[in-house]
Amino acid sequence: MGNTEFTEKAKKLVREYIADHLDKADEMPAFEVFVVCNAYILGNMKALLSTTLPDGMYYEVTYNKAKNEIYLDAYKKFENICFAV
To answer: How far is Cα 35 from Cα 61, in angstroms, rounded to an integer?
Structure first.
């Protein structure tokens, strides 16, 4: 799987995850999924993604080439603190 194919697959998985986890009583809001960063590390591909939804969620999608598996982790951002150095 190449980088472009992986990135598109990651976006699709995030979109499907959100559709499965939003309240079914509400109408599906329009939103975009975008890649914050991606990398190829030790034979695996990894992408960090977010959406335009105001829910503070971000997603990590990893492709394990050796096992031909993709993992999705969903995280909630609680706060952003600035520290002077």
So the answer is: 10
